Amino acid sequence: MADLLADENLPFPTVVALRNLGHDIQTLADLGLAGLGVPDEEVLQTATTLGRCVVTFNRVDFIRLHQRDNAHAGVVVCTFGVDYIDLATRIHAVLEGVNLIGQLLRVQRKPT
After folding, report:
1. How far is CA 25 from CA 7, 10, 19, 53, in A?
2. Which of 72, 83, 87, 105 could connect to 48 by a Cys-Cys bridge, CB 3.0–4.6 Å?
């Protein structure tokens, strides 16, 4: 299972579901960084320092950060959907057996 850091925009039910699937996922709140407006660069650096892959809905900024420098512990960018449990299942499936170091993974919402 993966060591993850949930960006502030990742819904807590998805965090809980990922924990139930066996992932070690921390939130910015767990680190005392919630509500502080921490810049994306700092979120990615914090995750990298902790050896955690960032999971976020902020696709544009984190894709840009990855393209600029892929020396990180991984980034999973997700499209928004209201089925937070399904999102966790999709994230889990994408993470299965992948070495996350320096990787950018994309998780799309379930087609309607």
Report:
1. 10, 11, 6, 9
2. 72
Q: How far is CA 28 from the centre of its chain?
A: 11
Q: Considering the entire predicted model, what is its pTM?
A: 0.93
Q: 68, 85, 87, 20: which is closest to 76 by C-alpha?
A: 87
Strand partners, 27: 6
pLDDT higher at 110 or 87: 87
CA 6 to each of CA 31, 75, 107, 111, 112: distance values in angstroms, whole numbers, following the listed order: 11, 10, 14, 23, 25
Tens-digit pLDDT profile for residues 46-86: 999 999 999 999 999 999 999 999 999 999 999 988 899 99
Q: Which residues pair with 54 in a beta bridge?
A: 5, 75
What pLDDT was estimated at residue 26? 97
Tokens of 41: 């660069």
